[in-house]
TrEMBL record:
GO terms for molecular function: oxidoreductase activity. The keyword Transmembrane helix applies. InterPro entries: Mopterin_OxRdtase_euk (IPR008335), OxRdtase_Mopterin-bd_dom (IPR000572), OxRdtase_Mopterin-bd_sf (IPR036374). Keywords: Membrane, Transmembrane, Transmembrane helix. Pfam families: Oxidored_molyb. Residues 311-445 form the Oxidoreductase molybdopterin-binding domain. This is Oxidoreductase molybdopterin-binding domain-containing protein. The chain crosses the membrane at residues 46-73, 110-130, 151-173, 185-202, 250-270. Coiled coil: none annotated. It comes from Nonomuraea terrae.
Amino acid sequence: MPDTPEGHADGGSAAAARRRLTAWVRDGPPGPFRPRFWRSPLRGPWLTSVLGLVLLAGLVIVAVTGLLSYAAYNPWLPENDMTPGKGLLGFYLFDWPTQPVWLYRVTQGAHVVVGLTLVPVLLAKLWSVIPKLFVWPPARSIAEGIERASLVLLVGGAGFQFATGILNIQLFYVFPFSFYPAHLYGAWIFLAALAVHVAVRLPRAVRELRSRDLRRELRTGVDGTRPEPRDPYGLVAADPAPPTMSRRGLLAFVGGGSAMMFGLSVGQTLDGPLRRTALLAPHGREYGTGPNDFQVNKTAASLGVTAADTGAQWRLAVVGAAGLRLSRADLLRMPLHTYALPIACVEGWSTEQVWTGVRLADLARLAGVTPGSAMVTVRSLQRVGYFGQASLSAGQVADPRALLALRVNGADLSLDHGFPARIIVPNAPGVHNTKWVRELDFRPERA
Ligand SMILES: Nc1nc2c(c(=O)[nH]1)N[C@H]1C(S)=C(S)[C@@H](COP(=O)(O)O)O[C@H]1N2
Ligand SMILES: [Mo]
């Protein structure tokens, strides 16, 4: 039968539909499944390799600091790690030290700031390989099918980790699961897929990187921009459009985006005037006044902690071999010590302040336990929300700088910073510096 316009002759529509279907099966459905759909003359293995290697270097920092953060939570202590059935994934390398005091500030600041900085690179990398998402047929062999399925875990895992991380630092808990275990499981899935991807592609990426001279690319404008030579992987466009941008322009655009993310968030890890540059820092404006004028994570009001709970009636319950109740005046009569220590939040921001209070080790002795062998579970007055309790290791309790702080920068703690008393432990994640402490429950560690 001669070709007829679709649906003109009786019976022709069925034949045309069949032909269309045959063409779909052979060449893929129309649109992005057809190679000629993708026309950017910049796509190619060299560009993908440049973006991939930059991304890899950054992801190594994000992954290492992320796993360190897991260790920093002292996940083996009660109350600290609620991940169900974590098994081997709950692995950490060492007990988190109290020394140097700035370590978590640096590692967690790097985790968040580098993660944000990588967002433009990740998007550009995905853009550079997006034609591969639509490759037709979906798999020519079982091996290829498995390889492509592993990319679902890689891309999905990256998307999940970046999305949950960014939503969490915005305190925007829209996901229907708890951040901490989800980000931990997601990390292992993503890292496993990434390890496979790197093992398979790294040699190729390094080879491709040598195929063009970066300095030369950075000197080439739009006029001199030509597509990369056709590649066996199908990244280079089959029918490239004339360039509207050079590779230099693309790299500058991505690099500029990353520089902007870095520049507008790194200030949240610094004290002093540069802190005000952190326009992307989500908690930028919730400060106190006077000596208490520094970042507040959750306000007392938002957690239902009232001035009445924390007034003259307040007593600290100290539980151990002995049990006792102390008023704030009792605590102020004990030996007081002053140290400059940072609060370093898992959300990336950090700040150093000067804290005055009673040593946890002295309170342990009052409770009849020996510092160095006892951990403590700290419980707060708060009635709603998370982080109302946390456990500190025996090593943390024994550090002379680990305080039940009563004052900050020479003034009484403000209600938002944890009045009447809060925990400050050197090098601990901010979330373990429990505010509005109600009870210190000392017990032998690993009993
Ligand atoms: N009771 C209680 N303590 C808490 C929190 C909380 O939500 N409730 N937030 C923690 C977190 S996540 C951090 S980073 C620090 C922040 O202390 P700040 O608000 O005084 O800066 O407090 C910690 N102590
Ligand atoms: Mo935090």
